[in-house]
Specification:
Layout: E1 3-6, H1 17-36, H2 42-48, H3 54-76, E2 78-91, E3 93-99, H4 113-127, E4 132-138, E5 142-149, H5 152-160, H6 174-184, E6 192-198, H7 207-216, E7 219-225, E8 232-233, E9 235-237, E10 243-246, E11 256-257, H8 261-270, E12 275-277, H9 285-292, E13 298-310, H10 312-328, H11 335-339, H12 345-349
Length: 350
């Protein structure tokens, strides 16, 4: 069994440029034809330019697009893991429950509450050694983003995809997130913990009861308040990511979102854990990480791919092949091709 991964997955975002290339081609063809029809009719253009081949232009576009796509894949460097090794480590099972409601876009903590949380979580993942980690995102509902795993590479990848638009239902379903985490842990003898990262606003009433139930099962609940007590407005963005203003209520007043520290403190207290508040100088995860390290760690057996082979050379060769074929194909019809044009009156008479 081989595992496939990308060494530089960020380059894959450039694949989104392919539709833009096609759009540019279509627009250029449209304006070219529009200019030609200003001077002659379609029949006259065909008579004056008999060697023009539309399918060749499309075929060259397809080849160029394929060459661009394979070049991007080569830059991302796909790798296959061939050597599987079993490693025994000590750690705990840890679920991160991250609030992705619109209030987490507030900028009282820079660059905003959600991005600050994601940056802190990346640092946390880099510090993990033997622990297993899973991710839950929640707003008005809660969903498992990443099942419990020892694959920290996958955890970073899934974390990068988290955004407020992934859960349309607004709210702060902390209780549902805790219950979902409890049900998503594997049945084993590992010590378990849940980290709640939220501003606590618009929370549901069952969060404290869910934390108490988790504590009865021996699961520790930690909470990080992401926001400042004074609060700040929630920005609005257009489709290009430019800020266009702030959210308003039905009366037209700007909505100010504030950190609900009380509920998060109650959740951590009921869950036999700790609470801390983030600010612009610290995320709070350092304190929580130190607290988690005090929990007794169990031996965890995991399988890892230790040897990876680079495969970018294959895709680079395919890129060159597509480019060579594209260069060899002329944009106009060849003489022999015109002989097989059955719609040409001269050829039909001969």
């Amino acid at each position: 069994m081989n595992m496939i991964r990308f060494e530089n997955p960020q380059f894959l975002y450039f694949l989104a440029l392919i539709p833009l290339l096609v759009l540019i081609f279509l627009l250029s063809e449209y304006f070219r034809k529009k200019r030609l029809h200003q001077f002659a009719s379609s029949l006259m253009i065909k008579t004056l330019m008999p060697d023009t081949s539309a399918w060749r232009k499309w075929f060259k576009l397809v080849l160029f697009s394929l060459a661009f796509a394979t070049l991007i894949v080569a830059m991302a460097n796909p790798q296959t893991g061939s050597k599987l090794q079993e490693v025994k480590r000590k750690g705990i099972d840890l679920f991160i429950a991250l609030d992705v409601s619109n209030s987490m876009l507030s900028e009282d903590i820079l660059p905003n509450r959600l991005e600050r949380s994601k940056q802190a979580l990346l640092n946390l993942i880099d510090k993990l050694e033997g622990d297993r980690i899973g991710m839950i995102v929640f707003a008005g509902r809660a969903y498992v983003q990443l099942p419990i795993t020892t694959d920290y590479y996958a955890a970073r990848l899934f974390l990068s995809t988290i955004n407020p638009g992934m859960i349309p239902t607004q709210g702060t379903a902390i209780g549902e997130a805790i219950n979902l985490a409890m049900n998503s842990f594997d049945e084993n003898n590992h010590n378990k913990a849940i980290i709640i990262i939220s501003d606590g606003e618009d929370h549901e009433e069952n969060a404290v009861k869910a934390a108490e139930k988790a504590a009865e099962l021996g699961i520790h609940i930690y909470a990080i308040g992401m926001g400042l007590p004074d609060g700040s407005p929630i920005p609005l963005y257009n489709e290009f990511g430019k800020k266009t203003g702030f959210r308003k209520d039905r009366s037209g007043n700007t909505i100010v979102t504030r950190l609900n520290e009380t509920i998060l403190q109650q959740i951590a207290l009921s869950g036999n854990g700790s609470y801390t508040r983030a600010n612009n100088s610290r995320s709070g995860l350092e304190f929580i990480f130190d607290e988690i390290n005090k929990i007794e760690k169990a031996e965890i057996e995991a399988r890892f791919f230790t040897d990876y082979d680079n495969k970018f050379q294959i895709f680079l060769a395919i890129t060159l092949l597509f480019l060579v074929i594209e260069l060899l194909i002329a944009s106009r019809k060849s003489k022999w091709e015109n002989k097989f044009d059955i719609f040409n009156p001269k050829n039909s008479e001969s």
